[in-house]
Amino acid sequence: MVQVKICGLMKQEDIQAASEAGADFIGFVFAKSKRQLTKEHACELASFVPPQVKKVGVFVNEKLEVIEEIAEKADLDYIQLHGDESPDFCSQLSLPVIKAFQIHSLADLEGISTYDCAYYLLDSPAGKYRGGNGETFDWSIVKDRDFLDKKVLLAGGLSAENVEEAIREVNPAGLDVSSGVETNGVKDVAKIKAFIQAAKKGDKNDKV
Fold first, then answer.
1. What is the pTM of this model?
2. Which pLDDT belongs to residue 207?
3. Could you give the 3-state DSSP secondary structure of residue 67?
4. Are 195 and 181 in contact (CB under 8 A)?
5. What is the count of structural domains for the chain?
């Protein structure tokens, strides 16, 4: 079944709503963003994440020692890298890595396989910040491509309205959403639940 990651959570009630609705991953953003958390805040929120839900820390071009310190304090399960981190940098981390790549064209898929990652996150081109910009990329670029051992997380412009189409087009291992479950820039519990429900439903429909 397709996995769902709800990213950029900043409140206890949103974490609990996402977990109860069936989210597989919760994302805490430590990079510069309107959703950025302090290490202390993330540690507090981490206590509300149930064991079956994996905690992901999102970083952009951060120092290795800073990532490791935050990962330990917040009891993270995965490290998500949205910057210009090299394959060698990724291999030095003590936790499984989710490496994000901005997809403009087919050429952007070249070189991705040189990274040894738990998941490869394919995202739309960056806006003001890396990720969380609410725009899709051309899914036909990756449609019907048998690559990366199917360890692909799809991100960028996803919402409850297009999630079933995304699953049909890309057949990813998982979906990553942030702005698509917000209203006026704030996480919306109803949208979080609707997205997860649509994702799980879309996955079932795709397998029929």
1. 0.90
2. 47
3. helix
4. yes
5. 1
